[in-house]
Amino acid sequence: ARLSYDLTVYAVRELDEAAFLSVVGTMTDLDVEDDGDGEVKIVRGEERAYAFTVFGPDPVELDELPDEVLPLLSEPIAIWRVVVEGSDPDEFPAARRFAETLATASGGVAFDEQTGSVLDRDA
Question: Which 3-state string (H, E, C) describes the chain?
Fold first, then answer.
């Protein structure tokens, strides 16, 4: 069994904390539970159930970029990791939606580490 479900957002623009929080704010059922150093726990719904954790932003190592991502970005400057710990499939759609929204806000792309594919922004 997989221990987590991982998405990576490759960003072209910096987002400060306020911009990041506004991305969370655009997601109707999501909220920030705990904003630690470089790690943000996101909860979902009125019961504030754990949804996923966001790590970052961290600097990009260009040699670590997946081949699928390279042609889509001019100069990525940061990455975020969106991780569903415990790998609850019910949380995958929210995590994917969030990763796509974060990618759009930062001018980047979201990448599914399980399938090795870029998330389709129109999906």
Answer: CCCEEEEEEEECCCCCHHHHHHHHHHCCCEEEEEEECCEEEEEECCCCEEEEEEEEEEECCHHHCCCCCHHHCCCCCEEEEEEEECCCHHHHHHHHHHHHHHHHHCCCEEEECCCCEECCCCC
pLDDT at residue 87 tops 90: no
- Rounded mean pLDDT, 55-69: 90
Residue 2 has pLDDT above 60, yes or no: no
- The structure tokens listed for 121 are 């922004």
Written as one letter, the residue type at 90 is D
Type of residue found at 61 = E
**Residue 98, pLDDT above cutoff 70:** yes
